Fold this protein.
Amino acid sequence: MRSKDKDVTLDSQRLRELDNQLVWHPFTPMSAYREEAAPIIVDAQGFHLIDAEGCQYLDGHSSLWCNIHGHRVPAIDAAIRGQLDRVAHSTLLGLSNAPSIELAAELVEKTPEGLNKVFYSDCGAAGVEVALKIAYQYYQQRSGSQRAGSSGSPVRDKFLHFDGAYHGDTIGTMSIGSIGRFKNLYSPLLFPVVWTSVPCAVPDQPERESEQLEHWTGELERLFELHHETLAGVVIEPLVQAAAGIKVQADQFLRRVWGLCRRFDVLLIADEIAVGFGRTGTLFACEQEGVAPDLLILSKGLTGGYLPLAATLVTDEIYDAFLGAPAAGRTFFHGHTYTGNPLACAAALASLRLIEADHVLRNASRLAVTLAEELAPLKRHPQVREIRQKGTMVGIEISRAGEAYPPEMRIGHQVTLACRRRGVILRNIADVIVLMPAPAMPESLVTELCQVVCESVAEVAV
């Protein structure tokens, strides 16, 4: 829809020409992109984005799963402006800054018990890379352990991950990912891993879900028995595998994984990049099963969707293994130029305080109910194979008579284009339409989002 509040002051045609000539977009088939005249966003208000032609769109995927409170939030804007009046950036390499210290204190207070040290980076994939390197180095340096390869001791150089996992696009994170189209081309560059599957939630068939839980827990235990001496960590997205198409895990599987990690002395690495900050119903997904991981990675919603920032939290035991005289070589030699950027940390502090002050978790719980109710009619659509939901995270899988559409049809993408024509921005993962409204979004807008999705699926999936 066209915004009535904004004058079109930019030359949208010139922007589009430059975009097509110069900008290489991520995860985007560029030949098709150039033909689709995608919106060029120049403004935002609340939960809507506004393009260079003055058209307004409901942000139905939280600007790629990171927006929490909407756009142009006064409290976060003021926090960033206030920090600009002090210092925009220095470095955490041998120095510190006040917002990074204050944010670390808030995160330690709010995350699961025992996560008392915070290492900053600037995106989710980098936060996972940090966790992988810390886990590997920890086992070489912890008290009483032998150096890798000395005295015949096994090297802890493997990680276990799960089918459908996505943790980023660096070499390390691709190694522990499972989505073939993202990683297969780069296979010669990746390190070896151990993997297995997760049991899926089956809300209407508790016996089937229980059978899956027992089967895949048993398979995981078998892998631990075979590989635990060489495993440095198990990497898991708690409760939901987001990029797998909102694949919801069986209840209590996360806690089973945690129990096996403790039993076999393997670190549990929880990737809450996509599921954190209220999207599954609690501030952090691990809370729902009473799990305290050894390492926890946060990003996306950490700054409310404003600025790039990630945090990898670890226990005191892990941190202590890196202490010693400089000459001992126990230092963690990893860091990014913008690690702990003061502007990003100021935004994160403001966002965390808004989550509490505005009762965002309570609102997210209401939204979860609204999403389920409004999307219920789609379950009867012959081309809707499944609707998967955890909290405010929803995946609608489209198929034809139970079989996948031909990939050249890009049916999921066609649904998102139909949504765009109706004034809603969404993104698909293959033939899964992902809804990820901001946890603070009003219920009325979520109702509008669902109605548009229902109409668009009916139009395209025939």
Q: What stands out?
A: The radius of gyration is 23 Å.
